[in-house]
Amino acid sequence: MTAVICINVARAGSVASSCSTTLEPETTEPTVAKDYVARLVANGLSEPRGIKFDTEGHLLVVEQYLGLTAITFDDAGDGCVIESERKTILNDTLLNHGIELSSDGKTLYASSSYAAYSWDYDASSQKNTSGPKTIVDNMYGTDHTTRTLLLSKKVPGMMVVTRGSLGNIDDTAEVKDLGVSQVKAFDLNKLSSGDKKKYNYLTDGLLLGWGLRNEVGVGEEPNKGGIYGVENSADDVTRDGVNIHNTNPAEELNFLGYLDGTPSKNQGRNFGYPKCLTAWDTSTINGFKGTTGEQFVIGMFNKNSSQGDAMCDESQVQQPRLPFHPHMAPLDILFNDDGTAGWVTFHGSWNSDKPVGKLFHPLTNRGITY
Ligand SMILES: *[C@@H]1O[C@H](CO)[C@@H](O)[C@H](O)[C@H]1NC(C)=O
Ligand SMILES: *[C@@H]1O[C@H](CO)[C@@H](O)[C@H](O)[C@H]1NC(C)=O
Ligand SMILES: *[C@@H]1O[C@H](CO)[C@@H](O)[C@H](O)[C@H]1NC(C)=O
Ligand SMILES: [Ca+2]
Question: Residue 337 to residues 52, 154, 221: CA-CA distances in angstroms?
């Protein structure tokens, strides 16, 4: 991925017939549903992973192996935007995914595999005006090294930080105190008032959920402030010695509760991983009595257990809200302003014999069947 594409709803009957951009897509152009227009607006980026607009309309992009960049656009109307300037804000190859901006636009956040940081930021010059402050650390990891950041709008100052597993099937996720495969929230107001200099991911924060393999995308539903995560589930999974990986397990949408103290039975629960994964195609899961969207016990854990799939039911571990097709790799989730619709972006598969899922899709009540 080296480019940023903008997608917008065309105004009826007034789609700009031309847009004088000289950018050539490196791969095939995206196809979009009726009434949508997609345009390539920036390329030549280094693995862009996250974007945010600052208060003056510059697009901030976190690029893996490069750092943080600000792009200025000239807007010719009708969704025709052309890059006019690009500045490196942070030249730091360790920043790899997370990006956030405070609501006043004056504090910028980004993350490496190990820690999340903040900088004072000036949108008019597109420069950080302070050095980095560590806000959360002790997130060492391998394999799943992105630390997604989500700054709550509902509860100002609450920062959600996700930490994925250290491997495909990672036993350390079973030890709660190790802080692996978890989603936590940290109150940044308490840092600024001096109670603490920084948070330790393992021992601090509000635990939203554990047993969450790799919750790459997290979003806040704006109406009630519910936090949702989209999970990249396991590869090469077997059941009773049979490889079932092409059509199992499902990727997941999980509901992680609220940040304002509103009770939710989901919050802080174990969501299943690594023992329990979610069924997509139940016909290949030998002996499984559940349905698509319910969790089953995988290969090596099944063999030693007298309980079998019972250890994965709702009374034991939290089930997902929605299953998605295996290996689609959801990367982000966003809601509209009144919370009546949500969208999920998918990276697309590498571990599926038939490629699936490179798309951007609205949520439906049954998950994505494509
Ligand atoms: C980042 O810094 C390195 C070394 O100081 C330099 O070689 C490189 O060109 C810089 N990259 C950007 C995008 O500014
Ligand atoms: C901006 O951040 C970088 C690295 O994070 C730091 O080296 C630099 O000093 C900061 N700039 C200012 C003006 O503090
Ligand atoms: C299953 O049991 C065997 C023999 O008791 C043990 O060596 C192995 O580590 C167990 N595997 C798991 C995944 O618990
Ligand atoms: Ca799960």
Answer: 16, 12, 8
